[in-house]
Structure formats: C-alpha cells, structure tokens
TrEMBL record:
PANTHER family: POLY-BETA-1,6-N-ACETYL-D-GLUCOSAMINE SYNTHASE (PTHR43630). It comes from Methanolobus halotolerans. Coiled coil: none annotated. This is Glycosyl transferase family 2. Residues 44-176 form the Glycosyltransferase 2-like domain. Keywords: Glycosyltransferase, Membrane, Transferase, Transmembrane, Transmembrane helix. Gene3D superfamilies: Spore Coat Polysaccharide Biosynthesis Protein SpsA, Chain A. The chain crosses the membrane at residues 6-28, 284-313, 319-338.
Length: 375
C-alpha cells in the first residue's frame, strides 16, 4: 500500500508541476503593447484549398475589407484537386473584389503541407502570409502581425490569435472557448522566452528567407512551418493582437475528428524534430521544447495513471470512496456541458492527446474537412 501511495504521489506531482508553471506564467505575464504597422510592404497571401466553394469567395472578399492596401496584396490559391467549384469561384472573386490573385491547381491531391510549400515557393515577395479558406481576419490583424515581424530581424514568423465563432452553444463549443482562454497566453509566454511552435495556421506571417519546405507527408503544417524556421535560426512568436475568426462546430463527432487530427499531427511534428533539444537553439531548445514534450507525451499518461491509482487506493480503504473518486472525475469531465470551465477542458485535452498518440503515424496529411461556415 505504501509503495502505491508513493507512486500515486510521484505520478500526480508531474502534471501538477508542469501545468502550475504554465498557469503561473499566464497569470503573471504582462501585456505587451504592439503598435499597428504604418508601412505596408507588398505581401503574398497563400490559401490552400480543397472543396471550399462555400467559403472561398467570402475569404477573398475579406482581403479587400481589411485595413491593408489592396494593391499591396497578391493572393495565391493552391487548389488540392477540388471536386466542387472552388477554382471558378476563387477566380471570380479576384475579379469581383479587384484583388490581384492566381489559382494554382495541383496535378494530384497531396494535402495542405504540399500546398503550403508550393504556394510559398511561388511567392515573389519578401513577406508571405499563409491562411485557411474558412477564416476571416480582423480588420487590423495583418497590420499587427507584420509590425511584430518587422520589429526584430531575428523573428522569422508571427502567428495570430484565434477568436472562436459559435453559432450554436454546445459542449464542444464550451470546451473550445475555455481552452482558448489560456492557449494564447501560454504561447505568448513561450514567445517571450524565445519561440513557440504551437502556431495557429490560419494566420501566419513569415519572412520568405526564413522559410524552408516542410515535410509533406507528416506533421501539422503550422507547427512544421514554425519548427523549420526555428531550425533555420529565427524566432517564431505569437501575437494576440493579430486576431482572426474561425467557426467552431457544435457537432461533437466533427470536433472530435478535427481535434484528434490536429493533435496527432502536432505530436508527429514534435517527434520528427526531437533533435531541436539542443543548446544550439537557445532557450527554445533548452527549455520551451522539452517542456512541451513533457506536456504532450508524459502528462496525459501520468494524469490518467494517477486517476486510476487514487481511485484504487481509496477503494482499498472503502469501496465507496473509490467509486466517489471516479464519479467526481466523470462529473468534472462533463461539467463543461453546463458551464464552460478549464477543468473540463483540461481533461478533454488530455484525452485527445492520449488518443492521438496512437494516430501519429497514420499518414493524415490528406483529410476530409469539417463543415464550413462563413464568419
């Protein structure tokens, strides 16, 4: 009994310590004021697409509506063999909204990573923006992101902050909103130390000279971009002033599929870049990256192991006590269904990470998108 108690204490200690560090960083960090960009360099905006007919026109219109000179934007839509009218609608939108743009149709469907590589390679500008077809930039999002990029020659890429758009409240949307309240603050803390690689793919502004092609068949495109740029000797930072809006599905099965895919590809990108744990990459290689590895791989296993151990230990005292521990855990898990909270969101996040470990190497670079909504 005593050895099990010691094991339970030690295993529980790791998740508590790691997340306490992150929470302390979130609470104690100071807000950094970023001035809006007053110069407007010519930029290329790369939009990978696959069956985006519901949103592509709206996406291109948003480039017209933001506070950035239209004549300084060149859009590059890289289509992954869409079977709908994405290509025709994109070309029509370029003309309708007077946006300089082109559509590149790939010879075969190879996924988002390959589309990003192709789009960035075709860009003729020093600054390239990568985005998704189903999001909308806040009016000054590009201004803030570009200002941060140009503020330091050592910064190779900047990502923006996701503002979830909820059209129907549900357990899934409540969980995502709670998760997003701390996600950006954690990434900002890592950025202040050196870099973060947990990028939001729908808004990344990068220096083309800092970029090198990302792996096409494994890893998340956004994390892949950041990790390659860090490997090339630059910093990658998170800018919360650069906001974009994304529709969050209220359908549990669709969100589950999306979260598992994103988690698996993030974990896969992490695994393939383990050599970044090195003094060569400064505080990122010595502190930020090792801490993320613990968070992604060790904490989920330790967390659920500790739940099992504590329920068993209490059951040894009295069976009812063990059952109470499990009931309390289950109630915490589903509590987000009634009220958005970090406890429920944390547990679901650990579940997704744990399940994603089995899916890391399944070749998920080509997938079926969830429902699309204009935002």
């Amino acid at each position: 009994m005593s050895s099990l108690l010691i094991a339970a204490l030690l295993i529980s200690f790791l998740p508590i310590v790691i997340y306490s560090m992150y929470m302390a960083a979130v609470i104690l960090q100071k807000n950094q004021i970023i001035k809006k960009n007053t110069t407007f360099p010519v930029i290329s905006v790369v939009v990978p697409t696959y069956n985006e007919s519901e949103v592509i026109g709206h996406r291109i219109k948003n480039l017209k509506d933001i506070n950035y000179p239209t004549d300084k934007i060149h859009a590059i839509v890289v289509d992954d063999q869409s079977s709908d009218k994405t290509v025709e609608l994109a070309k029509s939108a370029f003309k309708k909204y007077n946006i300089s743009g082109e559509v590149i149709i790939k010879e075969k469907r190879t996924g988002t990573n390959a589309s990003v590589n192709l789009g960035v390679s075709k860009a003729k500008t020093d600054i390239v923006v990568t985005t998704d077809a189903d999001v909308t930039f806040e009016a000054d999002a590009l201004n803030y992101a570009i200002s941060r990029l140009l503020s330091d020659e050592n910064i190779g890429a900047v990502c923006g902050e996701l503002e979830p758009i909820v059209k129907k409240n549900s357990f899934t949307t409540s969980s995502e909103k709670a998760y997003r309240t701390v996600y950006g603050k954690i990434c900002k803390w890592e950025s202040n130390i050196h870099s973060t690689y947990c990028f939001n793919g729908p808004l990344i502004v990068l220096r083309k000279k800092a970029f090198s092609p990302i792996p096409e068949t494994h890893g998340a495109s956004d994390a892949g971009i950041a990790l390659r740029i860090i490997r090339n000797g630059y910093r990658c930072v998170y800018e919360s002033s650069a906001k974009f809006y994304e529709y969050i599905t209220g359908d549990f099965s669709q969100q589950r599929r999306q979260k598992l895919r994103r988690s698996a590809r993030l974990l896969e990108a992490t695994i393939y870049n383990m050599d970044l744990i090195s003094p060569k990459y400064g505080k990122f290689g010595l502190f930020v990256f090792p801490l993320r590895i613990l968070m992604f791989f060790v904490v989920p296993i330790a967390f659920f192991t500790s739940v099992i151990l504590w329920s068993y230990l209490f059951a040894q005292i009295n069976l009812v006590y063990g059952i109470v521990v499990l009931i309390a855990f289950f109630l915490a898990l589903i509590s987000g269904n009634w009220h958005s909270n970090l406890v429920s969101s944390f547990i679901w996040h650990q579940i997704y990470l744990l399940l994603s470990m089995k899916r890391m190497f399944r070749g998920m670079h080509v997938w079926k998108a969830i429902e699309r909504k204009k935002v």
